[in-house]
Amino acid sequence: MKFLKRIGLYGVSGTGKTTILKAVVAATSEVVWLQGSDMVLQAANMSLPEFKCLSDRQKYHFREQAILNAVQIQHEQNKHVIIDAHLAFLSDNGGFENAMTRQDAEFYTDYIYLNLPATIIHRRLINDTARPRSREVEILQSWIEHEMAALKKFCLSNGSVLTILENDDLNSAVQFICKYVAPTNVNESNKY
């Protein structure tokens, strides 16, 4: 019986998580990709605007339910699971809303963080006509620093595996993740 990984792919909006994971699932049958936001909205059975109106406690409950649903999906499909996720969201008051739950900590075996320069992410967001999102470079930088610090601290305290990808070449990220879930050489480093 093979060990099945449960990977959280983290990064602020605009880092390319969706693009990368579309290519990963096209390249390997070893993995199931679950979209974190869709999983949460399905668990809550509501739209994003409705979800945003919930209390922090209610949001936390549905985020935990989404992870429990991911456990069931992995059990049924017997494959590695990758969920594109956010550690935190920008709140209306200029701070950050934590999105990580206790169930996340128990679920994930590995974490991958897409750490790209805020200027590159800003350019991608401006050029994304399918999902227009506007963020200033300074706000993006603050968001990245917040997520990176929190995830490093979390992984250190829990002994979790954290890989940080700093290459803005999406194809390199796809190749890395494919090798990560189906390694051909166990001596390969997970530094990229």
Structural write-up:
The protein is of the alpha/beta class. It is built from 8 helices and 7 strands, in the order E-H-E-H-H-H-E-E-E-H-E-H-H-E-H. Strands 2-3-1-6-7 form a 5-stranded parallel beta sheet, with helices on both faces. A two-stranded antiparallel sheet has the order 4-5. A hairpin with a 5-residue loop joins strand 4 and strand 5. It is globular.
Shape: globular
Strand order across the biggest sheet? 2-3-1-6-7
Which percent band covers the strand fraction? Answer: 15-25%
Question: How much helical structure, as a percent, in the residues?
Answer: 40-55%
The arrangement of helices and strands along the chain is: EHEHHHEEEHEHHEH
Give the CATH architecture.
3-Layer(aba) Sandwich
- Discrete helix count: 8
Number of domains: 1
What does the largest sheet look like?
5 strands, parallel
Q: Indicate the mean pLDDT.
A: 86
- In whole angstroms, the N-to-C terminal distance is 28 Å
Residue windows where pLDDT falls under 50 for at least 5 positions:
185-192
The CATH superfamily bears the name: P-loop containing nucleotide triphosphate hydrolases
> For this structure, what is the CATH class?
Alpha Beta
Q: Give the class from helix and strand content and strand pairing.
A: alpha/beta
CA gyration radius, whole angstroms = 16 Å
CATH topology (fold) name: Rossmann fold
Q: How many strands appear in the DSSP assignment?
A: 7
